[in-house]
């Protein structure tokens, strides 16, 4: 069984939990609150020197970091991973786009405006850039979805899961999706997928990382 270190309110962590839920794959969830420094303890840094979540233990003592790498691993060989070479590349193309165009802008805005107390005041200098670049990324997605139901292979794939993670919380951090009807329709399609779970959903087995807190005290 997988062991997943994640933060409930993290979009990157949610992407992995959503994929595992859609695949009905069992796993043990370990809650790591990065806002409390739980990913910076010596114990956690030994597992992942970058000090980030999500982190997936795929075998005893063997860990995978980076949300999209984890997605590709857990979805490989399933209906969420395209079979043909070109469709796999197209899915990866959108996953790379998510990490360089969507997550650094909408993801950053969500973190500072929705999760960090006083974050808006701390990041006033960055907001304009986040808005401009985030809207540009949304427009690229909107244009693609005007003639397609999903991002690759004509069906729900790992690419949609990667992009859904932060797009669905864009309205919580100042982005207005009113002018993106194709994106809104796509969000509804993803949410109607059998096995879909929301960001707030918790698996039956959740462990708080209390040991990590003590180690970092």
From TrEMBL:
<dbReference type="InterPro" id="IPR040079">
    <property type="entry name" value="Glutathione_S-Trfase"/>
</dbReference>
<dbReference type="InterPro" id="IPR004045">
    <property type="entry name" value="Glutathione_S-Trfase_N"/>
</dbReference>
<dbReference type="Pfam" id="PF13409">
    <property type="entry name" value="GST_N_2"/>
</dbReference>
<dbReference type="InterPro" id="IPR010987">
    <property type="entry name" value="Glutathione-S-Trfase_C-like"/>
</dbReference>
<protein>
    <submittedName>
        <fullName>Glutathione S-transferase</fullName>
    </submittedName>
</protein>
<dbReference type="InterPro" id="IPR036249">
    <property type="entry name" value="Thioredoxin-like_sf"/>
</dbReference>
<dbReference type="InterPro" id="IPR036282">
    <property type="entry name" value="Glutathione-S-Trfase_C_sf"/>
</dbReference>
<feature type="domain" description="GST C-terminal">
    <location>
        <begin position="84"/>
        <end position="207"/>
    </location>
</feature>
<dbReference type="Pfam" id="PF13410">
    <property type="entry name" value="GST_C_2"/>
</dbReference>
<feature type="domain" description="GST N-terminal">
    <location>
        <begin position="1"/>
        <end position="82"/>
    </location>
</feature>
<dbReference type="GO" id="GO:0016740">
    <property type="term" value="F:transferase activity"/>
</dbReference>
<keyword id="KW-0808">Transferase</keyword>
